[in-house]
Backbone:
């Protein structure tokens, strides 16, 4: 598959609210603005999602304005206990009022209500994440303070339209493999993310989505063979004929991959067996991974059967190999990350 590397700049959308240039890039090429969107406010979906991890824990922090509903969420994934705990605060009909910035490189988030306080700030030292959620679990509060630094040279940026809907689009950036330091507290429990052994990623998404979609997404990050490595793999929604979102990163340098496939085991009842080993491969013979799941962070939000989010974010380790752009075979052994299967109606 020949993929289109975006060369343009300027506004993301034309005067009619349509994407000017679908494809992929290594840095954000376009300016995003609600003023150019040709869809009602309740159809606009904006979010910042951060995942911070080491070999003991991961935390996931979500701040999203989905038009007719907002979601502020925190999760703790405990690898030793093989458990995941998630708590969410729903915000009714924010319609773009939650203050998510139009750029992934600048603009801060400062938001609070009686239960939550969120501050995501750009500082000279890096991205500083401050997050507090009261009554996180069993009456215990959650707090996190993390600094993400050493942002890699390259990131995954994709501009995706939808077929048969000219004003639906997704503008997405994934920054994988930032260094992390800081920690979190749950009740009396405290965990420190030590610099050098901890990493963070950002999933920055902006756009107008159609109502019913399924996506598959996987990311991992860490140290392998003395290098900081990571990957972003995904598919499942929109018109991706111009480009896929699949990249492998070595010391911040991207190696572009083509189409991928998640081979999720299925039981005799026809249902996915998320905690059985998966395989992931690609259409060009450059990617071969075995995913060994440990934790299924499943979450179901169902509001009157109209707004549904059915998520299986499965954490585990990846072993296999990737062929880099220059033909080098890079081997992976027990690289920690996740792979997910998500179905949304919103």
Residues:
């Amino acid at each position: 598959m020949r993929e289109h590397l975006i060369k343009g700049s300027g506004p993301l959308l034309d005067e009619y609210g349509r994407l000017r240039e679908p494809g992929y890039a290594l840095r954000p090429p376009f300016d995003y603005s609600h003023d150019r969107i040709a869809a009602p406010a309740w159809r606009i979906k904006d979010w910042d999602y951060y995942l911070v991890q080491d070999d003991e824990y991961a935390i996931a922090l979500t701040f999203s304005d989905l038009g007719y509903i907002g979601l502020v969420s925190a999760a703790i994934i405990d690898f030793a206990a093989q458990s995941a705990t998630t708590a969410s605060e729903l915000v009714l009909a924010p319609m773009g009022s939650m203050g998510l910035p139009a750029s992934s490189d600048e603009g801060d988030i400062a938001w609070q209500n009686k239960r939550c306080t969120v501050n995501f700030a750009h500082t000279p030292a890096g991205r500083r994440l401050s997050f507090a959620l009261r009554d996180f679990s069993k009456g215990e509060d959650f707090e996190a303070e993390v600094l993400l630094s050493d942002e890699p040279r390259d990131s995954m940026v994709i501009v995706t339209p939808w077929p048969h809907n000219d004003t639906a689009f997704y503008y997405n950036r994934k920054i994988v493999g930032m260094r992390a330091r800081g920690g979190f507290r749950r009740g009396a429990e405290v965990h420190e993310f030590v610099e050098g052994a901890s990493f963070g990623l950002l999933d920055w998404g902006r756009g107008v989505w159609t109502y019913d979609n399924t996506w598959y997404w996987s990311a991992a990050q860490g140290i392998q063979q003395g290098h900081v490595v990571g990957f972003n793999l995904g598919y499942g929604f929109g018109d991706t004929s111009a480009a896929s979102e699949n990249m492998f990163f070595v010391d911040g340098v991207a190696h572009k991959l083509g189409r991928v496939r998640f081979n999720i085991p299925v039981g005799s009842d026809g249902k996915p067996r998320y905690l059985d080993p998966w395989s992931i491969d690609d259409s060009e013979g450059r990617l071969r991974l075995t995913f060994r799941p440990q934790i299924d962070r499943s979450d179901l939000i169902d509001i009157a059967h109209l707004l549904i989010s059915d998520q299986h974010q499965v954490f585990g380790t990846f072993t296999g190999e990737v062929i880099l752009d220059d033909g080098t075979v890079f081997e992976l052994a027990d690289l920690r990350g996740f792979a997910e299967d998500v179905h949304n109606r919103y």
